[in-house]
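pinging the channel bc i need a second pair of eyes. not urgent but kinda urgent?? the chain im working w is below, pasted from the shared doc
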Amino acid sequence: MAETKANIPHSKCNRSLVYIYFSFSALLCSCFVLSLINRHSSSEYVNFQAEKGNTMEELRARYGPPSEEYTRPDGTTTWYYDKDFLGITAIGVHFDSSGRVISRFNH
């Protein structure tokens, strides 16, 4: 009997510490993921330049292979370069059938 009354405040204290620990862990993990996203997005493609008339070879030499590449039946191609670690935002480039830039857009 004396055991239950003595342990009630102690168990509430332990439960609170567990909540604090898990909350802090979740916050720390979130900060880590956001730092990865910001580090990647701020480095590679900040000054991405794809002007009309540039060729696929010029862009591949300057920025490397695209993250995604789609070719349509009419011969036009679209490349996507991921701007962030998770691939949520990207830079897109449309090429005509001869491999020259038609337009650039943010996706």
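so The first helix runs from residue 2 to 41. and The first strand starts at residue 68 and ends at 71. — does that match what u expected or am i reading it wrong
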